[in-house]
Amino acid sequence: METLALTRVSTIGPIADVIEAAGGSLARVFHRSELPLELVTQPDRLILLSDQFRLVENAAREIGDDAFAARLSIAGGIAGLGPYGRLLLSFDSLGAAITKGYAKFASLLQAATEMDLVVREGLARWTYQITAPVTIGRQRNEILAIGYMLNILRHFAGARWTPEAIFVPGILQGRGEIEKIFGGDVMRGERTTVVFPADLLDLPNPSLRPWRETYDEIPNDREFVGVAEHMIRLGILEQSPGIDHVATRLGLSRRTFQRRLATHGVTFERLAEGVVFAQARAKLDAKQQAITDIALELGYSDPAHFSRAFRRWTGETPRHWRARQLQS
Question: Of 201, 75, 67, 222, which is closest to residue 139 (Cα–Cα)?
Answer without folding.
Answer: 67
